[in-house]
């Protein structure tokens, strides 16, 4: 078993389950009598020597229980891209000096695609310069686009919120006799997993959403108009990914604006639902509105998936166990077994970082505006169960640093 202390950080967009993973990391580290430090605001905390002693904060079960059900990132987050290196690099040297001062020999980074790039670089630098620190990534992203895992913690809770929101939007629309269209924009730049999950809203009393558009399928303006024309619903509900593209590969959301790129080179998108809304108004002249779920779908802990939270906690603990066993340069993941059961697995970070898992063809209907039953079977177990939420003055109680 590896000697030394742990460090843990959270990075990228927050979720309803990222703190449940942190809870698993803390519990397993303390169970093994290790000190555990939280890097504040991702890897920048290690660069700036900004750490919190998590053992002191979470020395009781009540705080840990609150942490598991608190949304967003307790330690703070960042979108910081570590520089490439050839020889020695001042930024990396500062990180490892700060680790050494606290006898940190194992570090866990909880995050998505870009965060795994950080794990990969830190591990590579440690190996090249013989630094005595092991690194593991614990997956997190509502986009569900991380490779090497059946699904990612955070996705199930976001999918549950999306499906519930679509169901309630459909109820709102159905009260009017006049024909109408409501376009709901759901997160997902190049992977339409969350938008696909909108199909879970369908029930014996509602067929909404009636059209589902994913970024995995190019969508021409003429096809969209034809699909809407052929839709028999009086009050049409349309679910669109923020990253839907036309037949020329252009994002609908950027057709009327130029919002640039982020630090990792990803296009900054700005309103695909509004573009679709305007197309419907121009061609059909019916009452139309667009709804952008935006950050609401990321941290809606009051309606989280218990399955998601429990799995997030489990995979956080697994990351600790993997490092104690001497693994490094790894990313934890899930393998689905039996009807619905998962077990944690280990992936090489080189096969995860900077790759993207999109919705497979078998999950997308041939008509291009729906998902298949196979997709529903994959999605449904991930949203099941409701956690017991502690309330304070009528709203969920959270813990903050």
Describe this structure in words.
There is one protein chain. The strands form three sheets. A seven-stranded mixed beta sheet has the order 3-2-1-4-5-10-11, sandwiched between helices. Strands 7-8-6-9 form a four-stranded parallel beta sheet, sandwiched between helices. With 401 residues, the chain is α/β, with parallel strands linked by helices. Helix 6 (113-128) links the parallel strand 4 (104-111) and strand 5 (134-139). Helix content is 33%, strand content 17%. It contains twelve helices and 13 strands.
Which labels suit this protein?
401 residues, alpha/beta, Rossmann fold, 4-stranded parallel sheet, 12 helices, 33% helix
What's the gist of this structure?
This protein is α/β, with parallel strands linked by helices. The protein is built from 12 helices and 13 strands.
Task: Set out the fold topology.
Blueprint: E1 5-10, H1 18-31, E2 36-39, H2 43-47, E3 51-53, H3 54-57, H4 61-68, H5 90-101, E4 104-111, H6 113-128, E5 134-139, H7 155-173, E6 180-186, H8 193-196, E7 211-213, H9 221-230, E8 235-241, H10 272-284, E9 287-292, H11 306-324, E10 330-337, E11 341-348, H12 373-379, E12 391-392, E13 395-396
Parallel strand pairs: 1-2, 1-4, 4-5, 5-10, 6-8, 6-9, 7-8
Antiparallel strand pairs: 2-3, 10-11, 12-13
CATH top level of the largest domain? Alpha Beta
> How many extended strands?
13
Number of domains: 2
The radius of gyration over CA amounts to 22 Å
Total helical elements: 12
Q: Which outline best applies? A: elongated
Oligomer description: single chain
Fraction of residues in H or I helices: 25-40%
Query: N-to-C terminal Cα separation, in Å?
Result: 31 Å
**Largest sheet, spatial ordering of strands:** 3-2-1-4-5-10-11
Low-confidence stretches: none
From N to C, what is the helix and strand string? EHEHEHHHEHEHEHEHEHEHEEHEE
CATH topology of the largest domain: Rossmann fold
Strand content: 15-25%
Rounded average pLDDT: 94
What's the architecture of the largest domain, going by CATH? 3-Layer(aba) Sandwich
Structural class per helix/strand content? alpha/beta
- Biggest sheet, open or closed, and with what strands and sense? 7 strands, mixed
């Amino acid at each position: 078993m590896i000697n030394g202390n742990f460090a843990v950080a959270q990075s990228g967009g927050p979720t309803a389950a990222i703190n449940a993973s942190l809870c698993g990391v803390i519990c397993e580290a303390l169970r093994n009598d290790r000190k555990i430090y939280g890097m504040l605001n991702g890897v920048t905390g290690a660069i700036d020597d900004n750490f919190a002693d998590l053992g002191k904060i979470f020395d009781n079960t009540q705080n840990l229980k609150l942490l598991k059900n608190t949304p967003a990132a307790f330690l703070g987050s960042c979108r910081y891209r570590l520089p490439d290196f050839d020889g020695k690099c001042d930024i990396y040297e500062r990180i490892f000096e700060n680790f050494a001062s606290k006898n940190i020999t194992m570090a866990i980074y909880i995050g998505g695609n870009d965060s795994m790039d950080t794990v990969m670089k830190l591990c590579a630098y440690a190996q090249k310069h013989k630094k005595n620190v092991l690194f593991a990534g614990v997956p997190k992203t509502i986009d569900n686009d991380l490779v090497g895992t059946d699904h990612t913690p955070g996705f199930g809770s976001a999918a549950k919120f999306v499906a519930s929101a679509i169901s309630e939007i459909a109820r709102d629309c159905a009260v009017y006799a006049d024909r109408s269209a409501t376009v709901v924009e759901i997160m997902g730049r190049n992977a339409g997993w969350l938008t696909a999950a909108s199909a879970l809203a369908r029930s014996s009393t509602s067929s909404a959403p009636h059209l589902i558009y994913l970024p995995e399928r190019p969508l021409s303006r003429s096809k969209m108009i034809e699909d809407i024309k052929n839709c028999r619903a009086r009050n049409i509900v349309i679910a669109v990914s923020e990253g839907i593209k036309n037949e020329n590969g252009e994002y609908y959301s950027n057709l009327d604006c130029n919002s640039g790129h982020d630090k990792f080179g990803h296009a900054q998108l700005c309103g695909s639902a509004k573009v679709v809304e305007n197309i419907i108004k121009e061609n059909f002249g019916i009452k139309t509105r667009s709804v952008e779920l935006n950050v609401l779908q990321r941290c809606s802990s009051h309606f989280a998936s218990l399955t998601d939270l429990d799995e997030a906690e489990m995979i956080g603990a697994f990351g600790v166990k993997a490092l104690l066993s001497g693994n490094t340069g790894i990313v934890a993941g899930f393998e689905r077994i039996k009807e619905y059961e998962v077990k944690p697995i280990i992936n090489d970070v080189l096969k995860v970082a900077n790759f993207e898992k999109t919705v497979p063809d078998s999950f997308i209907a041939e008509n291009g505006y729906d998902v298949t039953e196979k997709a529903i079977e994959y999605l449904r177990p991930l949203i099941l169960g409701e956690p017991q939420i502690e309330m304070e003055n009528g709203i969920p109680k959270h813990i903050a640093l």
